[in-house]
Here is the input.
Amino acid sequence: MHQYLKICVVLVALMAVPTAHAQSLVDWIDTNCDDCTARMPSQTGAYILEKGEEALIGRAWLAQHATKSIDIQYFIWSTDNIGILAAEQLLAAAERGVAVRVLVDDLLIDAENRTLLLLSAHPNVQIRIYNPNLAVGVSTWQKIKNVFSDFRAINQRMHDKTAIFDNIAGITGGRNMADEYFDFDHEYNFRDRDILLIGAAVQDMTENFEEFWQSEFAVPVEKILADELEEITAADSRKRAEELHAYAADPRNFAPAVREAIDATSKNVAPILQAMVWDDMTFISDIPGKNPGEMGLGGGGESTRQLIAALQGAEQEILIQSPYLVMPEGGIEFFRELVDRGVRIRISTNSLASTDNIQAFSGYSNQREELLRAGVQVYEYKAYPATRKTLAERHPGITKNETIFALHAKSLVIDDAIIYIGTFNLDPRSANLNTEVGVLVKNEQLAQQLAASIVHDIRPENSWRTTLEFNPDDEVSRGKRFRVWVNKLLPMEPVL
Here is the structure.
């Protein structure tokens, strides 16, 4: 467990705050927003969560005020501080009588089998694993067999990231449940973005979660780990719960600055509600499995279709932020046609210096010149952008320790009027293999907010402008450039 994070995670102290007499979400909304309740059946209120701390506090506060249900769906759930504390938060809700359901993709889950079983042993907690063919309950031999027998199946992942509270409020966006997505890690952080929703679109989020939960891809951990389940006793489960609660309550795990954030939590959440922008919003999502699989590693999906349709309607400008930029088949030609008819396209993505994914960058590197020749403007995010001082303003140690920041936000703005915030990367994997979710809305106020944020990220102090004459690859070591060169030789683009 990272020592750095033990002293700076806001969620720790949040869990130590008594919640037995907290207002329900419905009551709190009624108290703090005069017309929100009347709007919720037909419209959706939205607030863009730019900072990790804000996104963390929002999740924790909603979890503590939920009284009926919490439905969680994530691609990555790590056993670092954030992952452990989030698990404790959900367990605390379950002990209050809240029905908790957790659906996690199998690929990058690193929790021990025993931990999963101990948590799911609580009568109000259910845990299911999406497409379990690589990690949970899978032997090394079986992994090898799965890779060779059905390559598409092992590459078809649930990339969805949603958290739904009492079917009233929900959060979706780029952040996974791990330390580096919330701006607190002293070594490596992601510049990410979520959107908080209240109202009609949350019902669509709930329906999407239910479809995934009931699908054949979502397998209960008790079924996957039936042999190990026999060794779990009620005493074991109680002991694990006590350990989680003790960790959350231990003041050694957080700094005084965290207490200041906790004291101001309720005060800070109310302005978020009041600052929400209300409009008709569309929650877009893929079906479990993405597509029938008849086209091998291709085939697209509903999220792909809706985003293409939105982009096709552009008349003036498209502003995109995507950490991984590997154009699917026909993508460059699609952008060239838009540019030829007068649409300005600017894309913010990672540089070699900032990227966490050499394979994806290698795919981008293969296409970079062609993309530029198509007329697309490309900006590559610096590893030490000036904006990190703003993103982590409560934690000056991050800038002092030369913490790397990399893009992980997946967003776009069309004609200063339409926005998308979600999980979709501009790459073949998101287009054809991974299930994705997000919010698509036509609203000038939200568009202005999001555009301003992305434009700030592409300013010279935060990003390099890449051209046919210049790219910033030389800013990194020869070893890292060699790794890119090796990966460029591999035929991996369909799964990047």
User: Anything to note?
Assistant: The first helix runs from residue 3 to 6.
